[in-house]
Design goal:
The chain has one domain: Udp-n-acetylmuramoylalanyl-d-glutamate--2,6- Diaminopimelate Ligase, Chain: A, domain 1. Helix content is 35%, strand content 19%. The protein contains five helices and six strands; from the N terminus they run αββαβαβαβαβ. The chain has a six-stranded mixed beta sheet with strand order 1-5-4-3-2-6, with helices on both faces. Helix 2 links the parallel strand 2 and strand 3. The longest helix is centred in the C-terminal third of the chain and has 10 residues. The chain is globular and about 35 Å long. 41% of the residues are buried.
């Protein structure tokens, strides 16, 4: 699924990475604990989180996650946007809760991003 399609499904605002909307992702991971992200994430995943701070961007970069979606109407500050831009990431923001955002993506065909997921 492309980032563009994810943005459409989630009615998301793009904060940075407009030039990467055709990037393909294979799975999604929803987490606010970055240790969970580090333990379970696999390749080409989009991270959905309510954690809007530098740690989320650092963890995403460490795990080679190129797309981060902030849920619950949270928007990144300018320093977070700058940090993501420097790391070549796409940042999206959606009004949907974590549960609904993950559900909408799952319903549209995007599956789990954890190595322990069975779907």
């Amino acid at each position: 699924m492309t980032v563009r399609r994810i943005a459409e499904i989630l009615e998301a605002k793009v904060s940075t990475g407009e030039d990467q909307l055709d990037l393909e992702v294979n799975a999604a991971c929803g987490a606010d604990l970055m240790s969970d992200v580090m333990a379970f994430v696999k390749e080409k995943v989009v991270l959905l989180t309510g954690l809007v701070n530098p740690q989320a961007i650092r963890t995403a970069d460490l795990m080679d996650i190129r797309v981060v979606v902030f849920v619950r109407g949270k928007a990144p500050t300018d320093d977070i946007v700058d940090m993501a831009r420097e790391n070549g990431m796409v940042l999206l923001s959606t009004k949907y809760s974590m549960f609904l955002a993950c559900g909408r993506l799952y319903e549209s065909g995007l599956r789990g991003g954890g190595i322990r997921d069975i779907a």
